[in-house]
Amino acid sequence: MSETAYGRGTQRPSLSRLALSVSLALTFGVTTGAMASSHREAPFIAGQPQTDATDFYMFRSYESGRQNFVTLLANYIPFQDPQGGPNYYQFNPNGLYEIHIDNNGDAVEDMTFQFRFTSTPKDTALTVGGKATKIPLINSGTITGVNPASLNVRETFTIDLVRGNRRTGARTSVAASSGGATTFDKPVDNIGEKSFPNGYANYAAQHVYNVAIPGCATPGKVFVGQRKEPFYIAIGKVFDLINLNPLGPEVGGNNNDLEGKSVSTIAMELPIDCVATSADPVISAYTTASVRQARLINAAPATGLNKASKEGGAWAQVSRLGMPLVNEVVIGLSDKDKFNASKPTGDGQFIDYVTNPALPALIELLFPSAKAPTNFPRTDLVTAFLKGIEGVNQPKNVVASEMLRLNTSIAPTAPAMQNALGVAGGDLAGFPNGRRPADDVVDVSLRVAMGALCVLTGANDSLKVGCKPSDAPAGGLALTDGVRKTAANYGTTFPYLTTPINGNFNPAPAAGAVFP
Q1: Stated pTM of the model
Q2: For the chain, how many helices (H) and strands (E)?
Q3: Would the pLDDT of 507 be above 90?
Q4: Where are the alpha helices (H) located in 221-349, listed in sequence order?
């Protein structure tokens, strides 16, 4: 999106001064940041769940001894029920999954990690009445190791690193740091405790790989597999015309509607000196998924997996996710597919959705006492969404565009000390400086949409967001969806997200329950 608020080369405030400024947010109950999560956010991708990105996280690793690394988590395939058999949730073997990193602020990828998946059937058969008959299940017995004979479908993946343009740049393979293998196994989903006699956590841990990153002196880590859904939100009530009390309790006011779901995660841990430059510690990143432009449905598919169609032609991007929930509650309905197919360099076409947003007007319509901000264009949202906050996570030579941004020079915060409100809670290692699993981006989103930055910046506009407190009558309200988690709800080691729910999970409704 185009530069609308500030020129380049202005002096940044020190981190200590900024920390003092944002701590004032606790007084007002406001925060700085952007939007939340992305599940079924556009008409086309709602019918393509295998390539639907749900969340993207990027933060300095807070695992002990790993503070010199950055963790990136790209989640796909939303709303996975534990009882997903018999096929469970596999990545699209005809898809291309990518994580793009821009390390000079120009809105163009400098490094792209490309993931391709392959599902290979083993055609396990039983002798039935003298005939060998293929079994209809994904496993024929218990599973204890990587690719055991009892696993009827082997899902593997490869990783390429492309430097420069994602399609024409120099491409090299990412390999295991020991042995040099370039094909990695993905664990099957959490079928149930009978299938994993040693526990699913032990099984999945065998699929964390140390990898050599081409051009990097220090190895990184990779894990791809099912995880428990980390995002938390009262999603049913939020999308039912915000059918909740937005000024109610921040914790425990509503149920987390994603608590019983899982997702499929692409996780990478990369050395900071490999992804950030000496000129600027701020990196920007986002994830995309693409499919082939042409698809021919086989009227009589051949035997084998993924034979129901033939696909070819150029790659067509169908999913894009950086700052979360942007496409869900910022981009207009008829432009959602267009946004998913776009790149950051083309974000100028969506600028009106940021400078003249519909969400605050909708909130005021539903809650007349919550008056929408009156400053147009909304330069405060241009800062939050498209540039990063000066002195925290804004690149030195930023080109306004929608991506998640992280200042890799800011030390990680230990799990027990993390504040779910991130920067506004005095925790500079949290959202919007990157995003950690426990950061409460929903509450942040509601507050920023209603002008939190205009209140926080003060009459002298100390944060340089181009507005003042009088522009945002509701900017000091502690808006919330009533759902919150802390770092205690997640792991403290890579890949941080926790064991997915097993397939035997089936909570029964209370006796005599009547559903509306």
Answers
A1: 0.91
A2: 12, 16
A3: no
A4: 235-239, 272-275, 326-329, 336-340
What tens digit of pLDDT does each residue of 287-332 get? 999 999 999 998 888 887 888 889 999 999 999 999 877 888 889 9
DSSP 333: G
Reference 200, options 227, 163, 165; nearest CA is 227
Q: At what angle do helices 359-366 and 441-449 cross, to 10 degrees?
A: 90
What are 14-18's contacts with CB under 8 Å, separation 24+?
A: 14/391, 15/391, 15/392, 15/410, 15/428, 17/391, 18/389, 18/391, 18/392, 18/428
Residue 422: pLDDT band with limits 50, 70, 90: confident
Residue 10 has pLDDT above 60, yes or no: no
CB 130 within 8 A of CB 96: no
> Cα(257)–Cα(260) distance, rounded to whole angstroms?
7
The closest alpha carbon to 261, from 486, 435, 485, 83, belongs to 83
DSSP secondary structure letters along 427-455? -TTSTTSSB-TT--HHHHHHHHHTTHHHH
Cis previous bond, 377, omega within 30: yes
Would you tell me how many other CB atoms lie within 10 Å of the CB of residue 462? Answer: 15
Closest of 101, 108, 109, 90 to residue 51, by C-alpha: 90
Given a contact cutoff of 8 angstroms between Cβ atoms, the answer to whether 195 and 139 are in contact is yes
Quick check: 2 pLDDT over 90?
no
Q: Is residue 289 classed as helix, strand or coil in its secondary structure? A: strand
pLDDT category at 37 given cuts 50, 70, 90 is: low
Sequence-distant (≥ 6) Cβ neighbours of residue 58 within 8 angstroms: 70, 71, 72, 73, 283, 285, 404, 406, 434, 435
**DSSP calls for 21-39:** HHHTHHHHT---------S
Token couple for 39: 């599940």
